[in-house]
Amino acid sequence: MTVRAEQAAPRAVIVVSSHVARGSVGNRAAVFALETLGHPVWAVPTVILPWHPGHGRATRIVPPTEQFAAFMADLERAPWLGEVTAVLSGYLGEPGQVEAVASLVKAVKARNDKALYVCDPVIGDKGGLYVAEPLAAGIRDSLLPLADIATPNRYELEWLAGTSLEDMRATMAAALAAPPATMLVTSAPAMMTGGTGNLLVTASQAMLAEHRIVERPPNGLGDLTAAVFLARLLAGQPMAKALQTTTASVYEILARTSRRGGDELQLETDAPSLSHPMAQVELRTLIHPSRSRKPGTETGA
Fold first, then answer.
1. Which of 30, 74, 151, 254 is buried deepest, with most CB atoms within 10 A?
2. Strands 206-212 and 282-286
3. Which candidate, 280, 228, 282, places its Cα nearest to that of 250?
4. pLDDT tens across 182-198, in order?
5. Which fold has domain 3-300?
């Protein structure tokens, strides 16, 4: 491929998520990761906050629905839309934003039928939903069916599936049943003692990348995981390799931040971990839910 052809190939990613002044969550995590890994980013803020709400109450600025929709419509009409190779959506500020995100995704795919849409349904955690139910329902009903890949955590998948997910069998079955066809579930049950995992389920494959639990982790791990996994796929990595290297990068950054006592992911310090992670991650190939036998380990990799 010539230099001119490389420059013309779509590489930009539109990231639609929250923006914080301090910290490494939402767009701050996703944009940094994607740009570090070589992708120009069109960053769309859905809500503006001084810091993550977990650090305490603070001012929350949500664009009016009409203005947000107009902003997104401008992007749909942008003469540079052909630059875009993927859309990643994360935390949304209110239910009215769902329709505008869906419209933008459709416009991108109409311009580039190979473009990927990754939906990170940021709606809740262990304690249940932390967004209004109409917003969660909008993401479930309007965005996930459009997505090529979704990256819910285990608790978000429980809400989407409408049932508790106590073990690997139930988690895999729920991931297979829900749209889209490829589901990367973070905070999944692990097979190693004291571990946690990222579970990847497609129509024909089930794989688990796991590592030890790091206590009291900072926020932003899901945002970072979705962005890095997308970047790995855009770089041409096969699913299994993308899962392993994504998990290694995020775990390495998490472990290093924890050792320093950081209350936010320190992406600027640990940027090399995005490109060349050294952490060891166990990758297991699992028996797919479509088979009748009890899920378990087929091979380790």
1. 30
2. antiparallel
3. 228
4. 999 999 988 888 888 99
5. UDP-N-acetylmuramoyl-L-alanine:D-glutamate ligase (3.40.1190)
